[in-house]
Amino acid sequence: MSTNSLQQHVNEPTRGNNIPDFVMTTTDLNINGLEVTDKIGDHQMIDFSLEVQDPNTRTQDKQVLDYKRANFELIKEELGSHNYEILMSNKNAEESYMILKEKIATATEHRILKKRVRTISNPPWFSEEIKCLINARQHSKFRDLKSIIAGHSSAA
Length: 156
Prior knowledge:
Oligomer: single chain
């Protein structure tokens, strides 16, 4: 195990005088509060917590446009104040597009404010399936709580 940088954390018997159960980690992971507890059948249960810090999980602040606070009336006025026939006369499609793009950017630059948002990138193992399972578990707990509350109110 040491050649693969693995560490065994169960050091006491979990079935009779034997240690058939393994909790193995790389040496850089922390196992906290590992204890051999109650029996389940002919085995004893192993209880522990694992501290995992994924270096791929990052928090990042970024600026995004806040369309809810935008002044669309002023944008509309600004864009409507130009004579596009004159601006785009004798221009090809690419040049006309660049003119329109620049006019829109100028009109929206000070009329759509920006807000700061914090994004958290999930670790690579946090898949959509895991996210759905967590959401389902939380909704299940909420439904259980609602039924308990409903049961108490109808009993009164």
